[in-house]
Design goal:
- The chain contains 30 helices and 11 strands.
- It is mostly helical.
- The chain has a 3-stranded antiparallel sheet with strand order 2-3-4. Strands 1-5 form a two-stranded antiparallel ribbon.
- Strand 2 and strand 3 form a beta hairpin.
- The protein is globular, with a radius of gyration of 26 Å.
- The N terminus is likely disordered.
Length: 827
């Protein structure tokens, strides 16, 4: 369908001085706030009281039925074949051109369920999934294929040791088994693939994008996506923000629409159940902002009900504090396509199905009678983690006033600026984009600007598979193009910590080759024009194709590479050249914030008052790139290890950066001795990173920090010796106890071991918990959410369950200040 572009009226500014005055006053107010508002304490942002009551009083209740995959799915890695001329590659399913380095790409291919050999090759006998017991899939398909392709037994066929067997086991036994199992999961190109899913607002964007642009996902993919939605629909018909959250309007309205687009019939009981939930909440008029935009694109919500996001914002001078260039890059890159879609008032084809959704999403309400403008700020209380501030409401009113007098030539100029920026982001990221939200939005924009047959749009189509990942519960859209570099760097360091690399040398050399191939070698074109910081020398969270380096990913990639080279495990191309490490350090030094800490993708560009303009009501702390304990610790460790290898390179600058980073770390400890972790759950994670930074710095004056950390962690140890906390710790910013988790127990142990906790019995009990949890083939069970982002949304890291217990056991055996021969054994 052709996009629907509706230009606003051409009223001259001078005919409405009230509007002009309002705009000027609003700009002046923002400038005053920029100058006078101090940065708030760490952990800015909180949920409304209604929202917290909902979280506390509405437990997640899944339906017990397991909906099985219709097809058999094969993990195919890069998923490409040479093009006809032999000078490039095309996607092996779509046939579209694929650009970029491609190292670490994760794709899946379907097969019909009609051949026993295919079943044996790609699917384990045990593919059961019980969302009532655990909504997290165990990543059974990938793990089965990686192990059986190496001639190893299928995973999950042996039980946990249990306490009795653990009493006879030694750390050496557990380490050997754990490392053997960990390396058995490595993919042929050297990285660790895994499930990085969990959020429920991602899949609908891809489904709506495919529907309005006419992209054929294929029947197997549509079926697998619908299977995932069926398996995770809750007993009341809703879907939450993420796997462990109770029902929300964003999750339910979007996933209901997606399920219908994927083939769920209107008269199915599951569909009727969702409509009942929607009706009880007053219908989708109160869906949060991102949902309003997606439903408007689909044609099942009216653009008049969307808070104005005019593309003219990109025409403002960047020195204005509220220019989007000053936003955190994820907020900026989502705002970018939204402004273009809003400016064009893009609407997909008004099919009979979309017409039906106009009534289904608003049960008991006449769609034509809805006063859409009244619902711009109407957000369901069940979703409202970050309520609208008075400043946000003022800015929304000002932008709404501007829309009534918007000048056509300014709208056209704004659209042109947005288009140029979108095209640059697509090109710079090899059409993967920074993440799944803007990937789907950017595709719709590319379709609108360039058409379905353009080379640019076809390159986008080729990269859709990068985000689709299959487990026993169905196909999800991942929270990124994967966590390949991140997981691989940690896996390598876990093995090196144990000092047992020689036994898995070939696997470590393949890992080094992957890390080598994953470094971003050059800055992106037009860095300054499109508001990018340096990228040369960095490592991304996923692959080099993404081209968005992250400070801690860069340091973890560098640390892993240095550790491998120190152990003699360089890949086939040898050690990285010194100038590549120099480039990585240049990037890390350039990213350090003014407060001494490190952010994620770029230096903090705006004042913390910008959080008052947060338009994504379901998240917190998304408007600027804050400094974080984990990022800062990783950078301190990375810079220190770099100095050990290259002591003469920028020595003074590195030492100063470490000192400033440590000053930031010291300020973050809370009165009870805890450390808030922002990118995983939560206080156990923060404590580990904080301790490692303190240990690296080696300042005797920091001993009191370590003592308080140990006291806090010991106060949270459970009777079984382990540690566990729910994702609510991140939301409430207080420790929320949960059954013991292998991963969180490992983080707590790493912190205690690093701090040389004097309570040896407590540490040994934690180790025995890990030994008891480990299966006889070296695996660990999949448990609750351990990942988090933007304060409120849980996410899965399926490899964490293998990486961190091994790391903790290795640290116990090698770094702790005593040896218990009956527990450690002979390494």
């Amino acid at each position: 369908p052709a996009p629907c572009a509706q230009e606003s009226g051409a009223m001259e500014w001078a005919t409405d001085p009230v509007v002009l005055l309002s705009i000027v006053a609003g700009a002046a107010l923002l400038l005053v706030l920029q100058w006078q508002t101090a940065r708030p304490a760490a952990g800015f942002g909180s949920g409304s009281n209604t929202w917290f009551r909902h979280i506390d009083s509405t437990p997640r209740k899944h339906q017990p039925k397991h909906h099985k995959l219709e097809h058999v799915w094969e993990y195919t890695g890069r998923g490409v074949r040479p093009n006809a001329s032999g000078d490039g590659f095309v996607d092996d399913m779509t046939g579209e051109e694929v650009v970029g380095p491609l190292a670490g790409r994760q794709t899946w291919r379907p097969h019909a369920r009609d051949d026993d050999d295919t079943l044996r090759a790609f699917e384990p006998e045990d593919k059961a999934f019980n969302p009532v017991k655990n909504p997290h899939a165990a990543d059974k398909l990938l793990r089965y294929q990686m192990r059986t392709q190496k001639g190893l037994p299928a995973p999950g066929t042996t039980p946990s040791r249990g306490a009795a067997a653990a009493a006879r086991a030694t750390v050496a036994d557990a380490l050997r088994d754990g490392i053997d199992h960990l390396v058995s999961l490595q993919t042929p190109d050297g990285h660790w693939a895994g499930d990085y899913g969990g959020p429920f607002f991602l899949l609908p964007g891809f489904v709506i994008m495919a529907y309005v642009t006419g992209v054929d996902l294929g029947a197997p993919t549509r079926s697998a996506l619908l299977t995932y939605l069926r398996n995770h629909q809750q007993a009341d018909g809703s879907w939450g923000l993420h796997l462990e959250g109770p029902g929300t309007m964003l999750g339910t309205a979007l996933n209901y629409a997606a399920a219908r687009l994927l083939g769920m019939a209107k008269d199915e009981p599951a569909a009727a159940l969702s409509r009942s939930w929607l009706k009880a909440q007053g219908g989708a008029v109160s869906i949060p902002a991102w949902g309003k935009v997606w439903l408007s694109v689909l044609g099942a919500y009216d653009w008049e009900g969307v808070n104005p996001v005019p593309p003219e914002l990109w025409l403002l001078p960047t020195w204005l504090p509220f220019h989007p260039a000053n936003f955190w890059c994820h907020a900026r890159m989502v705002a970018l396509p939204m402004t273009a879609l809003y400016g064009a008032r893009f609407i997909g084809p008004l099919s009979p199905l979309v017409t039906s959704l106009r009534s289904e999403l608003y049960p008991g309400t006449d769609y034509a009678s809805i006063r859409w403008a009244d619902h711009r700020l109407n957000i369901c209380p069940l979703d409202l983690y970050s309520p609208h501030t008075p400043l946000f409401k003022l800015v929304s009113w000002v932008l709404g006033a501007y829309e009534r007098v918007a000048v056509p030539f300014l709208r056209r100029a704004g659209m042109a600026a947005a288009q140029a920026y979108l095209d640059a982001e697509d090109l710079q990221s090899n059409y993967v984009c920074i993440g799944p939200v803007n990937k789907a939005f950017n595709m719709v924009c590319c379709f609108a600007f360039h058409g379905p047959d353009s080379a640019l749009f076809r390159k986008h189509v080729a990269r859709v598979r990068d985000y689709l990942y299959v487990c026993e519960d169905g196909m999800r859209v991942q929270g990124y193009g994967g966590s390949q570099l991140w997981d691989t760097s940690f896996a390598v360091q876990a093995v090196c910590e144990a000092g047992m690399g020689a036994s898995v040398a070939p696997q470590l050399r393949r890992a080094h080759a992957f890390i080598d191939a994953s470094q971003v070698r050059d800055d992106v074109p037009l860095t300054k024009e499109f508001h990018r910081d340096t990228a040369r020398g960095g490592w991304t969270f996923s692959t080099a194709d993404n081209a968005w380096p992250v400070a801690d990913c860069t340091c973890e990639g560098m640390r892993a590479s240095l550790a491998l080279e120190a152990g003699g495990f360089a890949g086939e191309d040898g050690e990285l050249a010194a100038n590549r490490y120099f480039a990585a350090v240049n990037l890390v030094l350039a990213y350090q914030n003014a407060d001494g800490g490190w952010p994620t993708y770029e230096r903090e560009r705006g004042g913390s008052w910008l959080e008052s303009l947060n338009p994504a009501e379901v998240f917190g702390d998304i408007m600027i790139d804050y400094s974080y304990i984990e990022l800062t610790s990783a950078c301190i460790q990375g810079l220190a290890e770099f100095q050990g290898r290259f002591p003469g390179h920028r020595a003074a600058q590195i030492s100063k950066a470490i000192d400033r980073g440590m000053a930031f770390i010291r300020r973050q400890q809370r009165p009870d001795g805890s450390w808030y972790g922002s990118w995983a759950v939560c206080f156990t994670y923060g404590a580990w990173f904080a301790v490692e930074a303190i240990r690296t710095a080696g300042n005797a004056d920091d001993a009191a920090l370590l003592d308080r950390t140990c006291a806090f962690l010991l106060s949270k140890q459970r009777d079984d010796g382990g540690w566990g906390e729910t994702y609510l710790s991140c939301l409430k910013k207080e420790y929320c106890d949960a059954p013991s988790s292998n991963v969180q127990t490992a983080w707590a142990l790493l912190a205690l071991i690093g701090a040389q906790c004097p309570d040896r019995d407590a540490v040994a009990r934690g180790v025995r918990f890990l030994l008891a949890s480990q299966t006889k083939d070296g695996d660990f069970p999949q448990q609750q959410t351990v990942g988090i982002f933007n304060r409120s949304c849980g996410i899965s890291y399926s490899n964490y369950r293998n990486i961190f217990p091994v790391w903790a056991l290795g640290a116990y055996a090698r770094r702790y200040d005593f040896q218990d021969a009956t527990l450690v054994g002979t390494l």
